[in-house]
Amino acid sequence: MPCSRLMPVCFVACAALSACAATLAQSPTTGPQQSAQQQPAPQQQGDQTAPLVDQQAQKYPTAAELSARETVASALLRNFGFEEYQFRSAAEAMPADKYGYRPAQGNYGGVYPGYGPTELRTFGEQVKHVACANFGFSAELDGKTPPPNCDTGGPSPAKTRDELIVYLHDSFKALKKSLGAITKENIFQPIEGPYAGPNTRLGIATVCIWHVADHYGQLVLYMRLNGIVPPASRPNPPELKD
Q1: CA nearest to 97, candidates 139, 173, 160
Q2: Residues pairing with 190 in the sheet
Q3: How far is CA 26 from the centre of its chain?
Q4: Dist CA 109 CA 116 (whole Å)
Q5: Which of 134, 137, 27 is CA-nearest to residue 83?
Q6: pLDDT greater than 50 at residue 28
Q7: Would you give the DSSP letter of residue 78?
Q8: Do 238 and 113 form a contact (C-beta atoms < 8 A)?
Q9: What is the pLDDT of residue 42?
Q10: Given a cut of 50, is residue 195 above it in pLDDT?
Q11: Which residues have CB under 8 Å from 111's CB, separation 6+?
């Protein structure tokens, strides 16, 4: 059929479809699906999840608050306190039967004199070394004679887990007292001694902090290799046993 004859038919069909659409739009809907569509949409409930709270922000002062009352001693003790918790909590969490644990056996040799034994320390030897070093740094800061041979254990007779934990506790107590005596007037005074000397009072203080951090990193490996999560890495770190 020629296209010219199709055009009237198309116009009639379009008119009919338009009329049907208009009739359906005006007629009430009665089908079950149509009834469901007419129901008002339920209101969406808001997110009931409690907002996250920054526990660290609540626990610690802001930088502005610190700046308002900061001293040389408070700055040093704040950072040293973090390291004290990490190290002491690890020592307290390790079972007594693991204090003799050594990650690998063997004499590695080639160790610079004064830098420790030629084989890896046991867990207990790590604890004893840090405790002895803390007493050594404290003595140097106080102008006293430090204990000898801290690199190989030092003079303390502490040996069992309980004895070493007490020895460690006392060493942190002594060193915190010495660090607390550092002021802006004496911060650059010269310090002599076998442990990190010759140095200044500030220089020794920085060594005190990184030395504990250094050996804490080693304790973490000892604990992880024994399937123990260090307390400082747990969701709810326990308090120290003071």
Answers
A1: 160
A2: 200
A3: 69
A4: 10
A5: 134
A6: no
A7: H
A8: no
A9: 53
A10: yes
A11: 117, 118
Local confidence band at 242 (pLDDT 50, 70, 90 cut-offs) = confident
Q: What percent of the chain has pLDDT over 90?
A: 64
The amino acid that residue 102 corresponds to is R
Measuring CA to CA, how many Å separate 174 from each of 22, 61, 141, 192? 93, 26, 11, 19
d(CA 242, CA 165): 10
| Spatial contact of 139 and 147, defined as CB atoms under 8 Å apart | yes
**Residue 140 · residue 195 · CB < 8 Å:** yes
Provide the 10 A C-beta neighbour count for residue 138: 24
Helix (H, G, I), strand (E, B) or coil at 86: helix
Residue 183 structure tokens: 């002021």
The residue type of 61 is P
* 138 φ/ψ angles, rounded to the nearest 5 degrees: -60, -45
Among candidates 196, 188, 199, which has minimal Cα distance to 214?
A: 196
Q: 101 with 222: CB under 8 angstroms?
A: yes
Cβ-contact 147, 157 below 8 angstroms: no
Please determine, for residue 41, whether its predicted confidence score (pLDDT) is greater than 80. no
